[in-house]
Amino acid sequence: MADLQDDLRTAAAAAGEFDELAEPYPDEGLVTSEPYEPVSDPDDAPMTRARAILAAHPVADGYNGLPWALKRLSWYDLQDGESTVDTDVPRLRSGHVGALFWSLHLPEGLDGDRAVGATLEHLDLAKTIVRTCEEGLRPACTAGQVADARNCGRVAVLLGPAGAAALGDSLGILRQLHLLGLRVLTLTGVSWASDAGLTRFGEEVVREMNRLGVIADLSGASAQTLRRALSLSRAPVLCSRSAARSLRPHPANLPDDLLAELGAAKGLCLVPLTAEQAGPTVRDVADHLDHIRDVAGAHCVGLSGTYDSGAAHPQELADTSCYPRLVAELLRRGWEEADVAQLTWGNVQRVLRGADFTARAAQQRREPSTATISELDG
């Protein structure tokens, strides 16, 4: 075990600051909403209480597209404020955001070597942004590093999700992307994770992700892929941008039966703050959170701001500073602090810890897989 830990630390150190291992972490018909009523005075009691809860349990935002949004700018200033995007350090602090998952998804149409190369460039851009904003942001790969960043007054940045095409159908590329900091991979849009479900190679990808500590993202995946991944994965899975289909019939939203299965498997559904998937008002978003909590459990629901991804956002939730407004709405509905704490911070930390623990155990039992898609699916 000591030799294994030494090997892991050596490999991580060679990969740079995103790869530093932490010490083991301790044990189209739409549903019509009610008439919208604006959030009341921001100094009212629920808002004051929301800010106090978020100060103790900040938001772990499951999907943010900032690197791609900054790519088109010749100059920006995230530290002091950048009005051309939805995300900057002042607004993250105002919104009590403690961690961000930065999307590495690519424009549609890229596959093969082009997808691999574009993902590497996206990773490089993301790391450069963090380095140039080190007073506000800090790279993180594990639950422990996320907590350390928060304790130092920084917003933790985790890399992912990336699209499955980024692997180029190669487990070796998956391992190298992991060394470069990738922590979430979306299992859609490739031959081995399609509407028909996971192929034999796709199943081997999931096993290798478990061994590495890369979390499976199943937003947009077929029901067959989702169910097979739930049964196969030894680590918790997540849906990075999925709301309740019974409230809003968007194809990426989940029906109640899949929400229940996700909850039973201790997975995580991150509700996107987008008008298209959740609805046009903060109350609509809260309706989805209420519903998923009721169907799948409080341990199964989290938040996915989806800021700087090109999506339109509900009223009162225009940028990353607006999370207290959503939490205040939940408090008005009777949410207890414990459930809010799970929603904003605890559930993401649980999934990160689960991925870490699963990887440590799997690395003692299993060598890196040398399987190829031609061998398994040919």
Structure report:
The protein has one domain: Metal-dependent hydrolases (TIM Barrel, Alpha-Beta Barrel). The chain has 378 residues and is α/β, with parallel strands linked by helices. The chain is built from 14 helices and 12 strands. Residues 1-40 have low confidence and may be disordered. Helix 7 (171-179) runs parallel beside helix 8 (200-212), helix 8 crosses helix 13 (337-365) and helix 11 (282-296) packs across helix 12 (323-332).
Notable characteristics:
378 residues, alpha/beta, TIM Barrel, 12 strands
Q: What are the SSEs and their pairings?
A:
Elements: H1 2-15, H2 45-56, E1 59-64, H3 66-71, H4 89-94, E2 97-102, H5 112-131, E3 137-139, H6 143-151, E4 155-159, E5 162-163, H7 171-179, E6 184-186, E7 193-194, E8 197-198, H8 200-212, E9 215-217, H9 223-232, E10 238-239, H10 256-264, E11 268-272, H11 282-296, E12 301-304, H12 323-332, H13 337-365, H14 373-377
Parallel strand pairs: 1-2, 2-4, 3-4, 5-6, 6-9, 10-11, 11-12
Antiparallel strand pairs: 7-8
Helix pairs in contact: 2-12, 7-8, 8-13, 11-12
